[in-house]
């Protein structure tokens, strides 16, 4: 693997910091990936099993070595079990995030979390009507009961088109309780339980649907209720949003429960006075990863970057505090922060990190704790070494905050204009492009080039997570980016004053895309699988992405993956996911690392669906 910064990232700010890191002898994720080469071939194929202490076992993909584990498990069984465990972990991550949000909502309803309040009362009232309850506390209890339900279905699956619901029921994958499906995944993959690859994968789909139409959707809806449903706003992205003369506080992770309070505390006049007394011009809060997306779309707080930029932000020497909660936080940050003055502050009882200062965050004392955390960052400003500060002068403007409600409002209160544009061909179809960064792929290359190809061919793109931030840095989230789109999409965007790539939030907000897809399908009287739509995760790496991919195809959306999942050790499982699933679910996976070829696959699928619909 090349150490050339240009080979590692297409983002100029990241290239600049990678070169600096190399000169300073600092280790980054790319260096650690290089040291891991060659990576375990058995693991890459999904052919290793550690589910009991008779192992670890592995299957020889060439047929010359062992073809069964000690218990007799074949390649098909091992690959399917490993896939199911990944789905369970990903669904647990998103759904535990949702549980925390639901818990806060209950505390707010009981008057026990006074730092928070209800911001979107209209959405809360719609949820009360949907759940058939009369007050806030009853709504909180009804939502929390979704996690421990023993008999389903969970409430939000009723938002799916009737045809999709019928399919889930026929297949026996309609999710019951969120926790029940995750626990059943772990039980089935215990030694000596479920050894039928198809049965294992069906349970994986069920658990993933409990994530997409359960946990993730709960997180999105309640975050809107508590913190406000996003509306379009302008902000800036990339490492250049850090400011040399201000205290820089970076919030990193996934839960806006914390970052919401940090934003509020950093705006406190007392905190600003303290910063100025310490010699700073003020306080600058910047986001990183998905919690950055949350405060970006609700408050216009600038984002310093996506997953692979977390170490590069510290390497600027300008970050006085990096505050982390859960998910996608590299354990390497502590050692790197120790090379600078940066104070790494962990806040969740679920997530502690080597080299971090732990300042535990509790909902009942949220604002006071946030003030203490911000104060720690301010008092660290004096320890900054000005000679080591290097902030790339690179940042991009972005228009963000396209909730489903916002999109409908922009269309005049109805989906009819969008449907008309799709029927006329002005909009060829819809591409949902999401997912992480992965150092195995040149940083942002897959994200940006796939999206550029889609909009060039009149495909309207909706995006979340690290893809959204990659597109923001590449200036694809500006209304002016319509000039890069095909004539039909360009005309629509210019008429509405919107970009051809719509930022819909963080990774849990893929649930917004599900709601939008269901609404469009209902308006056309079809299933989601009939729509001229396709999904992609060009640079995915996490188990959350495995769960997301599973619930997206389970919902009927053809999806292209840019990195190869560890299933190729079983031709039967790989064929089921890429071919057989289409016959059962109306959607399947494709794997294509080349973003230009991936775009072609998506457009080919969109055109096929248009033809079937007679468009």
What does this structure look like?
- With 615 residues, the protein is an alpha/beta fold.
- It has three domains: 75-227, Substrate Binding Domain Of Dnak, Chain:A, Domain 2; 239-388, Rossmann fold (3-Layer(aba) Sandwich); 398-612, Rossmann fold, CATH 3.40.50.
- The chain is built from 25 helices and 15 strands.
- It has helices at residues 5-8, 12-24, 29-35, 41-45, 75-109, 121-131, 136-148, 162-171, 178-188, 197-227, 256-266, 269-277, 289-299, 310-315, 333-337, 366-379, 404-410, 416-424, 445-456, 465-473, 487-496, 510-524, 543-554, 571-585, 595-612; strands at residues 48-49, 57-58, 233-237, 247-253, 283-288, 321-324, 343-346, 357-358, 396-400, 429-433, 459-463, 501-503, 533-537, 559-561, 589-591.
- The strands form four sheets. It has a six-stranded parallel β-sheet with strand order 12-11-10-13-14-15, sandwiched between helices. Strands 5-4-6-7-8 form a five-stranded parallel β-sheet. Strands 1-2 form a two-stranded antiparallel ribbon.
- α9 (178-188) packs antiparallel against α10, α11 packs across α13 and α19 packs parallel to α25 (595-612).
- The longest helix has 35 residues, at 75-109.
- The protein is globular and about 65 Å long.
- It starts with a helix and ends with a helix.
What is the alpha-carbon Rg in Å?
23 Å
Mean pLDDT: 97
CATH structural class of the largest domain:
Alpha Beta
According to DSSP, the number of beta strands is 15
Number of helices: 25
The CATH level-2 architecture of the largest domain is identified as: 3-Layer(aba) Sandwich
Here the CATH topology of the largest domain equals: Rossmann fold
| Content of β-strand | 5-15%
Unreliable spans are none
* Number of separate structural domains: 3
For the record, give the distance between the C-alpha atoms at the N and C termini, rounded to a whole number. 46 Å
Sheet/helix structural class? alpha/beta
**Describe the biggest sheet?**
6 strands, parallel
